[in-house]
Structure formats: C-alpha cells, structure tokens
Specification:
35 strands, single chain, alpha/beta, Rossmann fold
C-alpha cells in the first residue's frame, strides 16, 4: 500500500525536493519485492552478497560445511543484511542421512534408494541416494524439515527436483509401491514396453503424491501458526527431463492447489545437451534453452502460477571461463525472450561462482577464480533483472505456431523396445528445430493444460505427434477437437508404429478398442481410420496428416524440406494470418532493453544490425554504441538510452551493483552502490549535464580510486571502482 497520507502529515519534507520522497518510497517497496532470488547453503558473506530480493536458504542441516551454525542462525545472517528469506531442499535427494541410517525412527532406510537393473543404487552424494518416496519418508520430510522451516518463520518453501531415473525401478521399495498402486506383483520394465510405461507412470505418481503431501502439510501447519505458506517446485524443463531420461510430475503439479509456482531450472548444463538438426548431432545452446524456457512458461501460463526463470553463470561440469561466458549469454538471452515472465532466480550457489576454481582456458589445466571482467559483466546482467519489466511485446517472427507436449514424453525414453529408438529426443526436436532455425518463434503447448481456455490463446496452428508421447487423459482429445472445429489447424506427424502404441491404456481398455491413441483423436475430429496422409476439414478448421515420425525431419541432411513446405503452405493459406516469415534472428524490446539472438545453421548468414544509442550490457565496459552488429550464433543485450522518458532526471542506466538510497536535488544526485566484495563495479549514469565534481567513498568514508569519464552525446558518466557489500557512496554535483 502506498502511504500517501504521509505527504499530508509531514509537508515540510516537500521542501527537500519532490523527487526524493517517491524514490525513497520506491526503494522501500522494492525491498519487499520477491522478484529476484538466489539459493545458497551458506551464511551471508561479503563476497557472495548478491543483492537480489530473496536469499533462498538451502537445507535444514546444522553446522553446514564449515559454518558452525544451526539452520536458524544461517537464516538470520541473511535477514540481518536485509534479505527476505525462503527455504529450499531436494525432495528426491538431500542431506537426510539421519533418515537413511535410522537415527530418526530407529530403522535403516537405505533400501529406499532408486536401484537399476544391475542392482546398483543411484547416488546423489555420499550416503545420499535418489529416493523412492515412501509415505514414511514423506512423514520424515514433514516432521524434520517442513515443520522446522515454518517454525523458523519462513513462509516460502521450495522442494526441488522431484526426479525418478528412468533406468531405476528395481528396488524392493519400488516393488512394494508397485503392488500397492497396481494391485499385482511388480514387473521388470526391461521386459516389455507395457512394463516400462507402467513403471514410469508409477514413478510419476510417487512424486506427485510426495509433493502434494508435503505441500498440503506445509499449508496446514503454516495456517495453524497464522502464516500463509507458499510452495514452489524448482524443476528442470520437460524437454530436459525427457532428454536426460528422468521422470517427474512436471505440468500436472500446476493443477494442485498447494503448488504456488515453479523455478524453471534451465542453464548451460541442460541446454548444451546435443540434439539433431540437418543430420548433425551437436550442442545448440540458445535454441535448446529457448525451447526449455518455453516449455516451462507454457506449463504455467494458463494456470496463473508464478514462474521464476533461472540462469547459471557456470554449470556443474568443469569448463573454462570463456565457455561459461558464451553459453551464459545464450541462455540469458533466451529467457528474456519470454516477456510475460519477469521473476528470476539470478544464480544458484554464489559460493561456487565467486570462490570456485575453474579452467583459465579450454586447453589448460590451470584454474583460477572468476575473472574480474566476467564477474563485472555477470553483475551488470543480474542487476538488470531487478528492473526487468513485463511486456506485451512479441518476439519477432511469425506467431501462432504451437508444438504439443505431454508429461508422457518422459515415459518412453528408457529402455528401448523392439528396436524403436528416439535418438536425443529427435521426435520432439524434429517438430521444433526446422522452424526455430528459420527464425520462427514456435511455442510449446501442454496437453495437460488442454482444459484451460488460455492454453489456446494465440495458437492458430498446432503440430503434434504420438511417436514419442501418449495422451494420459481421454478428455484432452475433446478440447483439441473443439479448437480445430473453431478454426484451428492441426498437423499430425507420425507413423504410429512405436511399441508404446499398444500398451494397455485408456484407448484400448474399458470399451475402447483403438489400435493407436491417434485413432481416437481422429474419431473426435469426424475422420475415419485408418487415416492416410493428406489434408482434411473439421468444422472451420483443418487436419493435416504427415505419415512420418518427426525424427525423420532432422536426422538426415535436408530431410526437413517436405515438413517445412507443408507448414508454410498451411500457414500462408490461412486467410487470417500473414505469410510465414523465415529469417535468421529473434529480437524483442522489453521497456528500455533490446534482446537479440542470431541463429546459425541458416542460409542467411547476414549479421543483425541494431542502430540507435545503446549501452552494450554484454560488455563489461558497458560502452555507448550507435550501432551493434550481431553475428550468427551470437546474442546481444542492449539498453536503449533513447527510450528514457525523462532524460533530465538523473538515473543509473546500468551497473554491476544494486543501487540504494538515491537522493535528488536541483544540482546534485547521490546514491549507494552495493555488490559482492572482490569484484569491480562499472556504472553508466545519466545526468542532465556534466558533473563538476564526482565524489566516491567507501563504507568508512575514505575516497576511492575510480575511473571516470563523461560521454557528451549520451549525457552519461562512466564510473568504475571496487565494490563493497556495505555500499559505496557516489555523489554528483553540477
């Protein structure tokens, strides 16, 4: 609530300058935001003082690592520095040794780990197995973890990565859950496609149950203490889990009343997983990240749940700093191309980023901490997220093309049966990459959200296949048919020959006798089966059938031309749309920010040229440019100085620190800049005229050595100086 009454109660404050009060109010309100966050298992340190809104404290374990502190003491260190504190822990793994060793209930529980066909437990760490989440383990999570967190006064809980490995499913614990769920004895998943499907449905159910139980308890217990506890699931994208052969509840969790939102755990480590396009298997980090973020956005947008997008300046596997930088820029640009998401986890684990040792170059074993130029650039990028606006602008390119996804993408990945394989999830990428590589911003559509009317907004052409997934609910086909009848165009790709077509499921049980789930869909569309390749009508819409599996569009060079020509003809023939536009780039304006990505592997190798007056936010020197050329395979992130509404008002346009305590007078502007120590700040400050004096002092009031320069055409001051967690005072006078 804005306390406007304050203006009337204390009128003499107006003498100090009208601009001062709104700014202070703004900053006060900003301090209560939960727009940006990071996760950490350590107490506050000046070298990891990231200055996001929220510190998500990880694990309830006392005496974590070298910090001789209780969980509550760790939390308090962040609160003392002005952070809102939330909590995160794993639900499929975590520091729960007291459960496995019997310390909690007197019984040994290492037999509840996920086990492969060879009898090997899948470990996340020492004495930390991936878990088959029994009701007993859920009870432990409630009593030992969630209750303690809420008792500590934390009202936001994140249980991350509900993951069951596809190759697991052979433990005694899993066999017990199978018998209870299905009512018959366990069947080895490697023996048939049906067993695989049944096993993965159970894995899916077990973590759906675990999340529901834990979060329902959190809500109820919080209410008993007068708290409104919010619950979030940090999770990899459906694209990544399917490619990495992991089963998770994913989109279905959005239907739970106890789930308030997600963190989209997308970063270089997930997005660099190779895929096929034009016959070549290789990393395509930007394109994969774009599809990953898109699948997370479409999973929640129709449901109104909150979504945080994550990026990571490094990754789990050791690489060199140049590699991290390049791919961080690619994933960062990809997330910003979704303008209706504006909440971010700016980084995970700042300790490993700022204090970890990584290779200085690709061919060297020499290791060093993060280079100053990279930490500066990273902090500039991170601090833009604190101000990143929502936008109704669309990313450049032909709109309205969706690709259907289902949670069951995760069910068919491992093991293979009857010689049918889907290398690197090519049946999914085969639908997406031929378009994305031609500059078409395809979106994903979750079949689990088919009942929400918002799911179908802005979708004119839907591409789908059951070669790599199956519809888990019969009702979804009714919603798809309604959409087609009202004028939508459905493109179905698939031979329907994979061994999962005939698993015992709703389309061939309880009175249904369809040979494949698509036959049921075609029946809903008024079409007789078996349906041959061709074009059909239903109501005001169209159905186009391509009798090829989508993997055939990408696994051989030039094999996507028939598919692309079909999509283009359909799109162009639609009188309600413009011609399908092929190009080599994506661009979006969000407030003052310009985000650009130019794809490679495109016939057009022309760089994208932006002209204006920009600050280059991917350059640690944040220079002012009149022109920016972006080459194929590269991205750009720019601040448009010409977008500033009132250039006479002093303001920080870009900085490698967060800005606090701004004060304005007729001839002066001051601020405090805070950022992690042992890093270099750069700032570009807009002023009405060149300052006669610039004073920069450290937290003790000592004058700091600084680099300064004035750029007359842009009316901006460039500053560079050493960062301090307690803040550097900057004063301009003119």
């Amino acid at each position: 609530m804005r306390h406007n009454l304050f203006l009337y109660l204390i009128p003499f404050l107006l003498i100090q300058g009208c601009a001062q009060l709104p700014q202070n109010k703004e900053k006060k309100e900003a301090s209560n935001k939960e727009k940006t966050a990071f996760q950490t298992s350590n107490p506050w340190k000046p070298v990891t003082d990231v200055r996001a809104d929220v510190a998500i404290v990880y694990s309830v374990k006392d005496h974590h690592k070298k910090a001789e502190m209780t969980f509550e003491q760790r939390v308090q260190t962040w609160r003392d520095k002005g952070y809102t504190t939330h909590f995160m822990s794993g639900i499929a793994w975590g520091e729960y040794q007291d459960y496995f060793t019997g310390e909690w209930d007197g019984e040994w529980h290492l037999d509840e780990g996920q086990v492969t066909q060879k009898g090997d437990t899948i470990w996340h760490g020492r004495m930390i197995p991936y878990i088959v989440p029994s009701m007993n383990f859920i009870k432990y999570m409630k009593e030992k973890v969630i209750k303690r967190v809420i008792d500590a006064g934390i009202d936001a809980i994140y249980l991350e990565e509900p993951e069951f490995w596809a190759r697991a499913g052979y433990s005694e614990a899993f066999k017990r859950e199978w018998k209870e769920y299905y009512g018959f004895e366990w069947r080895p998943q490697h023996e048939s496609a049906e067993n695989t499907y049944l096993a993965n449905k159970l894995k899916y159910h077990l973590y759906y149950r675990a999340v529901e139980e834990c979060f329902s308890y959190a809500k109820e217990y919080g209410k008993s203490k007068g708290m409104d506890v919010r619950c979030y699931v940090p999770t990899h994208s459906l694209v990544n889990y399917s490619q990495w052969m992991i089963v998770s509840p994913e989109a279905s969790l959005a239907s739970l009343s106890s789930v308030d939102g997600y963190i989209a755990q997308v970063w270089t480590g997930t997005s660099r997983e190779p895929n096929y396009f034009n016959g070549q298997e290789k990393e395509r980090v930007f394109e994969t990240a774009f599809l990953e973020y898109g699948s997370m956005e479409s999973m929640t947008a129709p449901t109104g749940r909150k979504m945080f997008f994550l990026t990571d300046p490094i990754e789990d596997w050791p690489r060199d700093w140049a590699d991290y930088k390049k791919n961080y820029q690619a994933t960062f640009a990809a997330q910003l191309l979704y303008p209706m998401v504006a909440d971010y986890e700016v980084m995970p684990w700042p300790d490993r980023i700022y204090e970890g040792l990584y290779r200085t170059s690709a061919g060297s074993e020499e290791k060093a901490q993060i280079p100053r130029f990279y930490s500066t650039q990273m902090q500039v990028m991170v601090n833009t997220l604190n101000e990143m606006p929502l936008s109704e602008n669309k990313v450049s390119g032909s709109q309205g093309i969706g690709i259907l996804m289902s949670n069951s993408l995760m069910f068919q990945r491992f093991p293979t049966h009857k010689g049918y394989d889907d290398p690197q999830l090519s049946n999914f990428y085969g639908q997406a990459l031929p378009l994305l590589k031609r500059g078409v911003p395809v979106k994903t559509v979750h079949i689990e959200n088919a009942s929400y009317s918002k799911t179908w907004q802005d979708v004119n052409l839907l591409i789908m296949s059951y070669s790599n997934m199956k519809p888990m609910e019969e009702s979804a086909h009714g919603y798809i048919a309604d959409w087609v009848e009202k004028g939508g165009t459905l493109v179905y790709c698939g031979r329907d020959e994979d061994p999962f077509q005939t698993v015992q499921e709703w389309w061939n049980t309880n009175g249904n006798e369809f040979k494949a789930p698509s036959d049921h869909l075609f029946g809903k569309l008024g079409l007789e089966t078996p349906l041959q390749a061709g074009e059909y009508t239903y109501g005001k819409g169209k159905v186009v059938v391509i009798r090829k599996d989508p993997k055939e569009f990408v696994m051989e060079e030039g094999s996507d031309l028939e598919y692309i020509n079909t999509i283009k003809k359909i799109y162009d023939d639609n009188s309600n749309s413009e011609k399908l536009q092929f190009k080599n780039h994506f661009a979006l304006t969000r407030g003052p920010y310009e985000i650009i990505s130019v794809v490679n592997e495109n016939e057009d190798q022309t760089p994208y040229t932006a002209k204006g007056k920009f600050i280059d936010l991917f350059d640690p020197k944040i220079p002012v440019l009149n022109e920016k050329k972006v080459k194929p395979g590269e991205q750009a992130f720019l601040y448009n100085i010409q977008s500033v509404k009132d250039p006479e008002v002093p303001q920080v346009l870009a900085a490698a620190a967060r800005i606090y305590d701004e004060v304005f007078t007729d001839n002066a502007y001051s601020l405090v800049a805070k950022s992690p120590e042992n890093t270099t700040n750069v700032m570009r400050v807009l002023l009405p005229q060149k300052a006669e004096n610039v004073k920069i002092t450290d937290p003790k009031g000592q004058i700091l050595v600084a680099e300064t320069s004035w750029d007359e055409p842009s009316k901006t001051y460039f500053l560079s100086f050493e960062n301090y967690a307690d803040g550097v005072q900057v004063e301009f006078t003119w």
